[in-house]
Amino acid sequence: MGKWYSDFLYKYKSGISHEFLFHFNIRDYMDNYRNIDRYIYEEFIKPRNFAIVAFYDISRGLTFLDQGMEREFNIITSNNAADYMHSLPSRIFPYIDKALKNTRMALFIDHVEKIIPSGDIGSMTMEERIALIWLSEWSTNSKISAVGSAIFMLADNIADVSKEILKSSYKVEPVLVELPVEEERLRYIEYLLRDRSVKTDISMDEFAKLSSGLSRKAIKDIKLRAEAEGVPISFEFIKEKKHSVLKKEYGDVLEFIYPEIGFEDIGGMDKAKNYLIKNVVEPIRKGDLRRVPMGILLCGPSGTGKTLLVNALAKTSGFNCVKIDMSRILGQYVGESEKNFKKCLLGAQSQQPVIVFVDEIDTTFRRGDSGDSGVSRNIFSEFLQFTGNTNNRGKVIFIAATNRPDLLDPALKRAGRFDKKIPILLPEEEERAEIFRIMIRKYGFETDITDFTPFARMTENYTGAEIEIVVRKAYEIANEDEKSGEFITADILEEAIKRCRPSTQQVEYMTELALKECDDLDLIPEKYRQRKSTDM
Ligand code: ADP
User: Fold this and answer.
1) CATH of the domain at 110
2) Model confidence at 82: pLDDT above 60
3) CA of residue 298 relative to chain centroid, distance
4) Taking residues 30-36, what's their average pLDDT?
5) Are residues 223 and 281 in the same domain?
6) 272 to 76, 98, 397: CA distances (angstroms)
7) Which of 253, 400, 465, 505 is surrounded by the most beta carbons within 10 Å?
8) Which residue from 56, 20, 282, 312 is spatially nearest to 177, judged by alpha carbons?
């Protein structure tokens, strides 16, 4: 039984409501083969003796499960509704109203966002307003609940539906139909592949893990495509499919990251690595999810490896990793952006266990001006709600990075959202030597340098990213120099350092800001600790 179904059943049985709005992954199979309406019909309606089961959407009008039910409906409405079966809500809803109150009726309303679209009341047409009144009043009608009728509304994106209907004066209950979780995907994959008609390069467990964020239908598509092309299902195959699904569903806003680097590929940052291993990786391994922080804020100058750290954490923890590109959300029309944002958050959440990464968060959620230049209040509160949802603890880890923590909206920094603020600062001498080594290895450059300490000494105030530039420059110089033939000598590396100066711009200021933001002395490098404790 899916979580959505138990949520719904609980709300129905405890009398919380008899009108529901199912949203998000509603076009998927709810188990191995059943669509949502069939599932609800077979599991819920059939055993409960409903007299009428009917379906309405504005294109097909009102239809019934069988003719007997249609007859029953016509008797209740004294045959007056017969001409209006294909009409708009204002015409047919009064008859539906009658039936709902007279006999036990189950009514499915699909594409409800086309009937009562979002937007303010002022811009709604008369037809939409009428439908809105019927739909909201049904939810609180005691006759309907006494008779035992139930209404199931369906919408792909809840943000497309008029917010009026979800106001607390009514009792319409939203039910989130999530994408299948790993275990559900595994069961579905076992079911799909049971006939062994396709080969797989990966185990079913791996397939289930890799297919996070995909619906059962998308998983089935993968199988069908592999079958049609006569190729085995592989990592690449799934990756491609996932990419196209994410693109189609969420535009360019959600990016799925396949982390390729681990903690060992990051120079320095011992304190940050240590913290993450002790408080994220190990608790996850032990299944002690309560210890995992809900959110982490990485503060420090650009190019110090914050993104890298998130990648490494994803790889080591085995969590999925998605990046939300807020600038793309903000580039959209105001109404659009809100709707898409909500969907993206659900999309990100559905990849759980997942790390959700937002880079340069200060550019979106600035203090004070969350009105026009930043982001709308609605998006902001959506975001707060998402990051503060404790049900996600241990399953969704939210990580944001910023070089200007001072600009962040204080509401975002309040306790509960970012359990930890980690300063990511310029590398120190030893760390720089390590980064040199890592960079040479990463690019596979040849060199006879064994000790990078002298070069680390020459590169005070360089970020990790700038050391990377130096090393690449050295390779360039080596290539120009005919004698050395791509070989990086000490002289060449020194020359490269001279040619690539660090952009000290604001680095000091950003370091100050990061130190000020961080309240855990254990995470602050020794050399700044003294300063920090006198500050406080
Ligand atoms: P930030 O997110 O802090 O702006 P990034 O993680 O994007 O920085 O770093 C940019 C690049 O610089 C990385 O892709 C990596 O190649 C290099 N880099 C930065 N810091 C380090 C480090 N400590 N160890 C290894 N590489 C680093």
Assistant:
1) 3.40.50
2) yes
3) 19
4) 96
5) no
6) 69, 64, 16
7) 400
8) 20
CB 214 within 8 A of CB 39: no
My answer on whether 157 and 11 are in the same domain is yes
DSSP letters, 392-414, are GTTTEEEEEEES-GGGB-HHHHS
> At 293, which CATH number?
3.40.50.300
- What CATH number is associated with residue 204? 1.10.8
Are 200 and 307 part of one and the same domain? Answer: no
Q: Please tell me the distance between residue 470's alpha carbon and the centre of ligand 1 in angstroms.
A: 13
Where among 157, 177, 197 does a domain terminate?
177
Number of compact structural domains in the chain: 4
Q: Which of 321, 425, 468 is the best mutation target for the ligand 1 pocket, counting ligand atoms within 8 Å of the beta carbon and taking the most?
A: 468
Highest mean pLDDT, choosing among 87-96, 207-216, 225-234, 516-525: 87-96
Question: How much is the mean pLDDT over the chain?
Answer: 90
**Which amino acid residue places its CA nearest to atom 23 of ligand 1?**
267
| Nearest atom, ligand 1, residue 424 CA | 3
Task: Give 466 Cα–ligand 1 centroid separation in angstroms.
Answer: 9
* pTM reported for the whole predicted model: 0.81
Q: Give the distance (Å) from ligand 1 centre to CA of residue 467.
A: 9
Q: What is the mean pLDDT of residues 43-58?
A: 96
**Ligand 1 neighbours (beta carbon < 6 A):** 266-269, 302-308, 401, 427, 435, 438, 464-465, 468
Structural domain of 207 = 182-249
Residues 116 and 173 in one domain: yes
Side-chain-facing half-sphere of 10: CA atoms under 13 Å: 9
Higher confidence at residue 486 or residue 433?
Answer: 433
Ligand 1 centroid–CA 373 distance in Å is 29
Same-domain check for residues 67 and 166:
yes
Q: Residue 372 pLDDT > 50, yes or no? A: no
Q: Is the peptide bond before 174 cis (omega within 30 degrees of 0)?
A: no
Q: What is the pLDDT of residues 235-271, one digit of tens each?
A: 888 988 888 888 888 887 888 888 889 999 999 999 9
Centroid of ligand 1 to alpha carbon of 350 (angstroms): 28
Q: Does residue 517 form part of some domain?
A: no
How many angstroms separate the CA atoms of 317 and 354, rounded?
10
